[in-house]
Amino acid sequence: MAVKHSLYHETGKLSVDRERCTLCGVCVKNCGVEVLQIKDKAVQQVDAGFGCIACGHCMMVCPEGCITVSGRNLSAADLQPLPPQEARADAESLKALFIARRSVRRFSDQPVEPELLEQVIAMASTAPMGIPPWDVGVVTINGFEEVRGLAEEVVEGYQGVLKLFRPGALKMMRPFMGQARYEQFSDFIVPLAHKYIDAWEEGRDTVFWGAPAVLIFHYSAYAEEPDAVIACTYAMLAAESLGLGSCVIGGAPPILQRNKALCARLGIPPGNKPALALVLGSSTVPFKRGIVRRFSHEQSAGLQ
Ligand SMILES: Cc1cc2nc3c(=O)[nH]c(=O)nc-3n(C[C@H](O)[C@H](O)[C@H](O)COP(=O)(O)O)c2cc1C
Fold first, then answer.
1. Which domains does the chain have, with CATH numbers?
2. For residue 304, what pLDDT is reported?
3. Which pTM does this prediction carry?
4. Least packed by Cβ within 10 Å: which of 79, 81, 103, 192?
5. Whose CA is nearest to atom 14 of ligand 1?
């Protein structure tokens, strides 16, 4: 049995060079899905649970480098050397990046080099996902005109939302929606739609903030939304490290999700759902100081 993926339906396939294997067992110990064992003096893949997910951990930890895993979009060619310790970000530099990052909504008229966006995507693709391989896709929209064109379609989508949820109609739906959902629509989505539309009519794009580039992260029916959210978060931090300002945009995906024709034009496979967008460009607002933020609840207690 294999964990289903929109493109890959097989389990990973282990291959061990028995001549070089010392039976140290590191691969067996580290296997997160417990499908390896030492039997008959050999490391073997057992047919258990949902099978090998091709995370590649066994070939990454093998001291002899004598394991390869293939399948599920993985092969030995995907191995890469580890950066030396001194080249890795330490807590200080990472914390400095986090504190200095801000959501950017004012962009210069400088376009973004396509190579820079490729670098952002390559860095984001190192993020963890629920079950490998990635079943998340990313659409790049690069160019002020292209981004504005997409923003216009999102604004039109919000005009449709307002028609559907006219004040009287929304009140009538209230018993079927539940209080929280009703309040989400009446107090957030409807005012947000008005804000987008009014700004657009004044010539301002408050969907993508006039950014020169947008990345849209979408996920298949076999993946989980957090996969795409984590990928987008990594992209945001990668952009910051590359000197690009960015802002996560949650306001556009709900409209994109409803517009199948637009998703098709964007190259999003049918069945995949846009989760988040990320606008990118050069910031024109120099922040002078950072801010301390806290989670709403931080407990260190155990169960009561
Ligand atoms: C899931 C998510 C969705 C967001 N959606 C939007 C959005 O649609 N439009 C926008 O201008 N900002 C959006 N933001 C940015 C937040 O408003 C921003 O993070 C917040 O104002 C705090 O600012 P900071 O990122 O500079 O700390 C979003 C952020 C997240 C994490």
1. 13-78 (3.30.70.20), 89-285 (3.40.109.10)
2. 67
3. 0.95
4. 81
5. 248
